[in-house]
Design goal:
CATH class of the largest domain: Alpha Beta
Structural class: alpha/beta
Helix content: 40-55%
Strand order of the largest sheet: 1-7-6-2-5-3-4
Order of helices and strands: HHHHEEHEHEHEHHEHHEHHHHH
Oligomer: single chain
Radius of gyration: 21 Å
Distance between the termini: 48 Å
CATH superfamily of the largest domain: Glycerol-3-phosphate (1)-acyltransferase
Number of helices: 16
Strand content: 5-15%
CATH architecture of the largest domain: 3-Layer(aba) Sandwich
Length: 391
């Protein structure tokens, strides 16, 4: 099926155009502005000089992105950890399917965790809605990203989905590269992560055999991402309020850029990635369904349970749950001082919301949404392990 498609408009850029693309990129005002914002301006000339010496994606990742991500990890996190490495078989390639916390760093920090262990990085799926400027598209495609076409018409959308599915299968089976893809389009604003059935059905458009056999081809490995703090939490609370005021509210490109910038550069606390076993054996247990909708529902449940069960739960999650539900159920997991620290953090974040005429009731609403964001990972984990209503 791969031979039916020309992937040149969505695939990472070939190494034979790396240098010429980089020469164009380092002259872009937007790129230069971003680099000057992210690092001391005195270091920018030497960075550009280094970039112009590189002529392939591997060296770009290991010589430039690796130290840059290590710098980000040092300055914006309390450490990045990787669990479940025993489930990783270096003789295989995987489709890492994860929950989605940060627009830029979910895949980047996962690749950083791999680079630290001398494991190969994955190609990364990125929506074209985030490629606001041409230079951003160039940059991500130089960094092993491939493009997911969104906001298309029905007919064009189906063709784009077939092409994307074919490319992912091509990556694993012919290029022998792993890929990363988020479990849904966009982040779960309330941090309750659930895989889109349409994503699973897209992955099974290409390949050989039945629905389940096509999915087994690409070795789906759920990965749970847990951030202690979400730098965008107050922006999400702000968006919840704006949608409450106006159900038709839509974010602007400026909003998306600011979210990317905030997630990239602000403090995230501890960050943990938990690899889980690939789901092929569970797909065998399900059997085959003639109806892809039914099949997708079962697959989604497997992925969601693997991710929910594997969350790293921090004290802030326990505090948020107890305050949200007016209980002391998890008080053994934090001190009274820590509870006060968490509430001070939430209030300080809400103080950043730049809207006029916020009423006390609206402030309470944003606080409840903030608490919900941090309580939901714990709720989903408990629901998966214990079942039933947790409230």
């Amino acid at each position: 099926m791969a031979q039916d498609f020309d992937f040149s408009d969505i695939a990472p850029l070939d190494d034979n155009v790396f240098h010429s693309t980089m020469e164009r990129l380092v002259k872009e005002p937007g790129f230069l502005h971003a680099v000057n914002y992210a690092m001391p301006s005195d270091d920018v000339p030497s960075l550009i000089e280094e970039l112009l010496k590189i002529d392939n994606k591997h060296d770009f990742q290991t010589q430039v992105m690796f130290p840059f991500l290590e710098m980000l990890a040092k300055t914006t996190t309390s450490g990045i950890t990787l669990g479940g490495v025993k489930h990783y078989n270096s003789s295989l390639n995987y489709t890492f399917i994860t929950n989605h916390r940060d627009i830029v760093l979910d895949a980047s920090f996962l690749n950083l965790a791999f680079l630290r262990r001398n494991l190969p990085t994955s190609e990364v799926a990125i929506g074209n809605n985030l490629l606001i400027f041409d230079w951003i598209s160039d940059l991500v495609r130089l960094n092993k990203s491939f493009i997911v076409r969104r906001n298309t018409g029905l007919r064009e959308g189906l063709m784009a989905a077939r092409k994307l599915s074919a490319y992912i299968h091509y990556c694993l089976l012919e290029k022998h590269e792993s890929v990363w893809i988020a479990q849904r389009e966009g982040r779960a604003k309330d941090s309750s992560d659930h895989t889109q059935e349409s994503l699973v059905k897209m992955l099974a458009l290409a390949g050989e055999g039945s629905f389940m056999e096509k999915l087994k081809e690409i070795n789906l490995m759920p990965v749970a991402i847990s951030y202690e703090y979400d730098p965008n939490d107050y922006l999400k609370a702000r968006e919840f309020l704006l949608r409450r005021r106006d159900p038709d509210f839509k974010k602007s490109q400026r909003d998306d850029l600011f979210s990317m910038e905030t997630g990239l550069l602000r403090f995230k606390g501890k960050v943990h990635f938990q690899l889980t076993p690939r789901i092929n054996s569970k797909l065998d247990q399900i059997g085959n369904f003639k109806d892809p909708n039914t099949a997708a529902k079962y697959v989604v449940k497997i992925i969601d349970q693997a991710i929910h069960r594997s969350y790293m739960i921090y004290s802030i999650n326990y505090v948020a749950f107890d305050i949200l539900h007016s209980t002391n159920r998890f008080e053994a997991n934090y001190t009274p001082e820590r509870r006060r620290e968490v509430m001070d953090y939430f209030n300080s974040q809400l103080d950043k919301v730049d809207l006029d005429d916020i009423t006390p009731e609206e402030r309470d609403y944003m606080m409840s949404m903030m608490l919900t964001m941090y309580a939901n990972p714990l709720k989903n984990k408990l629901r998966t392990i214990l079942g039933g209503n947790l409230e």
